[in-house]
Design goal:
317 residues; mainly alpha; 2 domains
Length: 317
Amino acid sequence: MKLPRRISEVIKRKDAWITSREAKLQTTVTQMQEQLLSRMLADILPLLEVSGGKIRNTLKNYQLLASLDKMYKDFGSVQKLAFVTEIGDTSKGIARLNKNFFSVSMGSALPDLFTDILTKTSELLDLRVGLKGGKIVAGSFLEDLIENKPLLMDLKQYMGRAVAAQIPTKTFIKGVNDMIVGAGDKAGGIEKHINRYAHDLYMQYDRSYAAQVAEKADMKYFIYLGGKVKDSRDFCVAHDAKVWTTQEAKSWAKWTPAMGDYPAGYEIKQKNVNAVPSYLGYDGYSPLIDCGGYNCRHHIGYIMKELAFEMRPDLTE
């Protein structure tokens, strides 16, 4: 049976919206990198002891590493405000879009307590990523993400080497620029760090939200939604647009390409079809949250038993 249009459309809207939020986050990150570069050049560069256009190997210049720590910490406070707004707005949007999806998939079966379920799920998922009452929770994943300590360490190491080697200030400025803003195809220091997690953060929030609501509403059937592109993984191609049960999903961590049912003419990408793909078999893999692994763009669309049985007649329970 063909995927119901009403479900297809609400998933397309959700996917388009999440993609737009990723693009907005990218814009925010680009602006932050420019701001960090400006702070670095305004707060640190003028204090460096220079001779003949080159940075001197002096005690004072090494002591400036402490000033770099303070500057970076102050900048982090500005970052937190921007990210709280950005990710907070995104989490609210994902909750709203999931409400729309469940309203469509459940229809008249929508439970009376559904609004309360949605509210409590939003609070739980916000806390999971590190948001509470519009603020970042100390020690949370989100705080670690925003602090981006790897970039600070890279900057400190580079500055220490620059002082020791007494490099020209022009070379130093270019090096700092490349590390923070990026150069050519190389991503900037904040962009590289955030992009590593941003997509999965949004998609896992979406899937976790849906899973929490489905569990409370006792929904055990779903459609694996997201479509196929040229580089779709074997797992996603084999599962796309099909009905599955939450019980079946428990075995995904041991799935191999040899088990898949593919469209006519499809060529399996993985060489060893009897091996569990690395994007599924890792420690901590959660089928309904991680789906096809890192950077997977698929959604779990929970549906009522009646539609599941109509779309997949072989189901017995």
